[in-house]
Design brief:
Helix content: 25-40%
Order of helices and strands: EHHEHHHEEEHEEEEHHEEHHHE
CATH class of the domain at 47-142 and 190-271: Alpha Beta
Largest sheet: 7 strands, mixed
Number of strands: 12
Strand content: 15-25%
Structural class: alpha+beta
Radius of gyration: 23 Å
């Protein structure tokens, strides 16, 4: 049994120190949405089927890439052999399928797996092999930043003396609740977390590959959503940290899922060094805002981001009745960036 992941929040607070693209995206969209999802753990009941479908789709592709990586010098699986193994595994793992959804059905899942792998049997993108001989597939990463939350718990006498006697410049502020803000005092650093579907070599250059599934038509406008984009910037940085090499960006393999067909389209998202430096600089601002809101326990609504938000039906109600609508229309499922897949 795997160990339960630690909390991404500083003990006894709502100050998050471990962030991934999902939680950071909620914060940037709307502090109220971040509060509902990350702190209270509310998720739309309809999200379960798309999440499950995506997880099974990713798992099957991961399994295929791992089997194909065993070709030399291990068991030489052919494409057809690996595909049969993957499909049988998917059929066994998804029976019975607990959802009734014409798009996100078990039939569409199996069809999409087969069609994608057949279409990309001779793909120009080749899976990068890690130093340990394993394929760069389904990689969870964590990277510490060189700064952390300024908030610190109430210090004991020894800790306070150590701060005051430190040779470093330390600015100590005692807050009304007895906690302290101590700039210059080392503590829990911020951690960026993420999960890369696959790292590939394309034309002699390393890219992160990310799989997306959607019911919408995949066009140039679909890929334009990701440039700029919080997730793709973080994935590029994560790939550079893991491989200590300048990852050029992210290759997005999108699957349009329809009742009678699945269509695949590939797009490229690039990131320059300057763009990534800018993203990391902005990150300091966003994390400071999150800490300030947590200290004040105040999460304002960004009412210009309500369109298509799943909490619109809640936030449009009077504050006195919102809790009832949350409990009626949503379920609790805590998202934890520190959970390794």
């Amino acid at each position: 049994m795997s160990e339960e992941a630690p909390s991404p929040f500083l003990e006894g607070t709502n100050i998050q120190y471990a962030w991934d693209s999902t939680s950071l995206g909620y914060l940037k969209q709307c502090p109220r949405k971040y509060y509902y999802t990350m702190i209270e753990g509310w998720r739309g009941k309809g999200e379960a089927v798309t999440l499950k479908w995506g997880q099974e789709y990713h798992h099957s592709l991961e399994y295929y890439y791992k089997l194909m990586a065993m070709r030399e010098p291990h068991t030489p699986f052919t494409h057809d052999e690996a595909l049969r193994i993957v499909v049988m595994d998917a059929l066994l793992r998804t029976y019975p399928w607990p959802f009734e959804d014409r798009n996100w059905s078990r039939e569409n899942l199996i069809r999409s797996i087969v069609w994608y792998l057949d279409e990309h049997e001779h793909d120009a993108c080749k899976t990068v092999m890690l130093a340990n001989g394993k394929p760069a597939v389904e990689l969870s990463f964590q990277m510490q930043l060189d700064f952390g939350p300024s908030w610190r718990p109430r210090p004991n006498v020894a800790e306070l003396e150590a701060m005051l006697n430190s040779e470093e410049d330390v600015a100590i502020t005692v807050n009304p609740d007895g906690s302290i803000s101590a700039e210059g005092v080392t503590g829990q650093p911020y951690i960026l977390c993420g999960h890369l579907d696959r790292v590939v070599d394309f034309g002699g250059h390393p890219f992160v590959m990310d799989h997306k599934s959607t019911k919408s038509t995949v066009s140039a406008d679909f890929f334009a959503r990701f440039d700029p984009d919080n997730q793709m910037s973080l994935y590029t940085i994560g790939g550079q940290v893991i491989f200590d090499t300048p990852i050029r960006g992210v290759i997005i393999d999108a699957a349009q899922i329809a009742v009678g067909f699945t269509r695949f389209t590939r797009g490229f998202v690039y990131r320059t060094h300057g763009q990534l430096e800018e993203w990391l600089g902005d990150l300091r601002f966003w994390l400071a805002q999150a800490e300030n809101m947590a200290m004040a326990n105040y999460w304002p609504m960004n009412d210009k981001a309500c369109f298509l938000c799943n909490f619109k039906s809640v936030c449009s109600k009077d504050p006195s009745v919102r809790q009832r609508f949350l409990e009626a229309d949503f379920r609790r499922e805590q998202w934890n960036p520190l959970k390794v897949r």
